[in-house]
Amino acid sequence: MKDLKVIFMGTPDFAVSVLQKLIQNTTVVLVVTQPDKYVGRKHILTPSPVKVEALKNNIKVFQPEKIRQNYDQILNTKADIIITCAYGQIIPKEILTYPKLGCINVHASLLPKYRGGAPIHWCLINGEEKTGITIMYMDEGMDTGDIIKSAEYFIKDEDNVGTLHDKLSQIGAQLLIEVLPSIINGTNKREKQDNEKATYAYNIKREEERIDFSKDGKSIINKIRGLNPWPLANFLINNEEMKVYNATFKPQKIDSVSKVVVADKKSLGISCKDGIIYLNKVKPYGKKEMNITDYLNGIEKDKILNCKVNG
User: Fold this and answer.
1) Alpha carbon distances (Å) from 160 to 146, 164, 168, 183, 233
2) How far apart are CA 295 and CA 272, in angstroms?
């Protein structure tokens, strides 16, 4: 496949494994990624992870602000196929119809479930038992194209967004390389998606990061897993935001929800609908992440015991 000329379009860490596999197995003639962004408190102009990988391999990089308005460089690059993975912009028809082998996307869900930009987050938040990768042809819709091949992954109890992100990235890269020969010779399967079974994974909104302790414990743990390590689930305690990396749930009868019911040297527990959520690792407002014992050692526990959260 080394003679296959590829344009790759991607931006975040998730896409780097796919690009690396393509560099090893094909000839990547152009990488298209999002413009550099100012990051952090010091506003340092930072390239995307995909750009860093491309430049490391001496591959030309194109970074249009708006791909719908600026795509001539892509059309002027001789390529057999365009492969995308978490690029971050809607790709216009002029690009989709350009390469002879089509535009192929690597998507982090089992389509038609979880179309959109945050499939890893939402499959965990919703408590799915499995997720996976779909290799698909692109069309003008959002993740609506024909499915070429899928690979399932059964979610483990210890998985969070970070671990699942890394596992699916590797699965996606390998699955793409396995299916590429059939795309080249035209023997690949092409299955229409059942739109009636479609669900959507829109990007997480700020207000959706807040933990609702009136819900059941399993749902709360799923939300914490589904937002760890970014953007992190949070709640308010004494009107200050506390972010949560991980927690455990113990079912028991509860008199009232959303209240600190345990605050001793080793444990901080908050009541929910059907038990207590024990925080394990947190990030208090204005401080670094820490284990709950370190947090408890630095506060007056009497001031938070029986305190209502988010109130």
Assistant:
1) 29, 6, 12, 33, 12
2) 21
CATH class of this structure's domain 5-197:
alpha beta
Instruction: Yes or no: say if 285 and 295 are a contact pair by the CB < 8 Å rule.
Output: no
How do the domains of the chain map onto residue ranges? 5-197, 206-303
Using CA atoms of 96, 98, 100, 104 in order, give the dihedral in degrees to the nearest 10.
Answer: -30
Average pLDDT, the chain: 97
Q: Tell which CATH classification among 3.40.50.1980, 3.90.950.10, 3.40.50.10330, 3.10.25.10 matches the domain 206-303.
A: 3.10.25.10
User: What is the Cα–Cα distance from 86 to 108, expressed in whole angstroms?
Assistant: 9
Token pair recorded at residue 257? 């929800």
Q: Which of 213, 282, 285 is nearest to 249 (CA)?
A: 213
DSSP 22: H
pLDDT digit string (tens) for the chain, length 311 residues: 999 999 999 999 999 999 999 999 999 999 999 999 999 888 999 999 999 999 999 999 999 999 999 999 999 999 999 999 999 999 999 999 999 999 999 999 999 999 999 999 999 999 999 999 999 999 999 999 999 999 999 999 999 999 999 999 999 999 999 999 999 999 999 999 999 999 999 999 999 999 999 999 999 999 999 999 999 999 999 999 999 999 999 999 999 999 999 999 999 999 999 999 999 999 999 999 999 999 999 999 999 999 999 96
Same fold: 5-197 with 206-303: no
Asked if 18 and 31 touch (Cβ cutoff 8 Å), the reply is: no
Cα–Cα distance between 233 and 242 in angstroms, integer?
9
- Six-digit token pair at 294? 């370190």
Single-letter amino acid, residue 94: E
19 burial (CB, 10 Å; 0-12 / 13-18 / 19+) is: buried
The beta strands (E) that lie in 157-303 are given as 233-237, 240-251, 260-263, 268-272, 275-284, 290-291
